[in-house]
Amino acid sequence: MDSVQLDQSAGIVSVGPGARWQKVYDALDPYQLSFQGGRNGKVGVAGFLLGVNFEVVLSSGVIVNANSKSHPDLFAALKGGQNNFGVVTKLQLRTFPQPPLWGGVVIYSNSTDEELLDAVVDFKNPARFDPYAMFTFGFVYDATLRAFTANIAMYHARPSIVNGSALETFAKIQPQIFNSIRIDSPGSFAGEKISPVVKQYYYLSANLTVAISIQSVPATAPSSNPNILGFAAGSEAEKRLLNIGLAIQYEDPAATAGLDIATKRLAAQIDQIAIEEGVYDAHLYMNYAGSWQNVLGGYGQESLVVLREVSSSTSGSMLGSEINDLMQSTLGWSSRPDGERA
């Protein structure tokens, strides 16, 4: 279940759902090939990828291949509709040539905040759009210093053109506390060990660590494959969207209720500001979303209808009742066995 098999002639790598990204990167690095996958090698591949084919065992016991031509609705539903349509036993990913990357992690002093935020805005300027670049930027609260420290993980797939790019702006901002920028393989970056310096700022605060992350939606290869996320084909969401995430680590269980309330309040305030500025988007990234957030509702009515139909066609799916409940609360109607809508 964790096998990795490369078909060089077809440019396809077949991966078992039990594999982790590090194993896949390590298998492809010798061929200077890569794929669209997770940036952390310890993360499992299942539920964290876009592929060209899924081998799926349905609740009936039938094994099908879901792709853009065979069972396309199931193919789309599996990429964002949660994991209740069947058991995926094999995933196939399209590879592409990938020589060593430019990138790494930089930690800055807290005097650089305004300059860094200006660089984020510059990066998202459509005129500066760079399909080979990505970053995850964040502020981490250090309870010992009683201050936020800024950090960024950034990568560029074409080291020869980094100079003059928006990422170069981040790399030049000073003062820096830590810098691991280098040219290296995808597998090396995915398996990068956290240095003692980074651990100090990420994990070793006295009682509380709060991290606010801003992540640019990465560019994807042009594709006619169906998706369930509510994005129209060719919409180029990567040119306009940023994901904002909030992570909290703490020691005292008694703080849970209060921090939960504070987290929800902050998320609501961010949403309201985005609405007032005219930049709000209902899409939520499922792997980062809170349990109280309406991820499926952000896909839009049309996608919810497709999810409901796929759930019914695969039969025995636990998601059927979840989608039905969501439709009742979000759209005001539900599917009945006779096919009528209420």
TrEMBL record:
GO terms for cellular component: extracellular region. Signal peptide: none annotated. It comes from the Eukaryota. Keywords: FAD, Flavoprotein, Oxidoreductase. InterPro entries: FAD-bd_PCMH-like_sf (IPR036318), FAD-bd_PCMH_sub2 (IPR016169), FAD-linked_Oxidoreductase (IPR050416). GO terms for molecular function: flavin adenine dinucleotide binding; oxidoreductase activity. SUPFAM superfamilies: FAD-binding/transporter-associated domain-like. Belongs to the oxygen-dependent FAD-linked oxidoreductase family. PANTHER family: BINDING OXIDOREDUCTASE, PUTATIVE (AFU_ORTHOLOGUE AFUA_1G17690)-RELATED, FAD-BINDING PCMH-TYPE DOMAIN-CONTAINING PROTEIN. This is FAD-binding PCMH-type domain-containing protein. It comes from Phaeosphaeria nodorum (strain SN15 / ATCC MYA-4574 / FGSC 10173) (Glume blotch fungus).
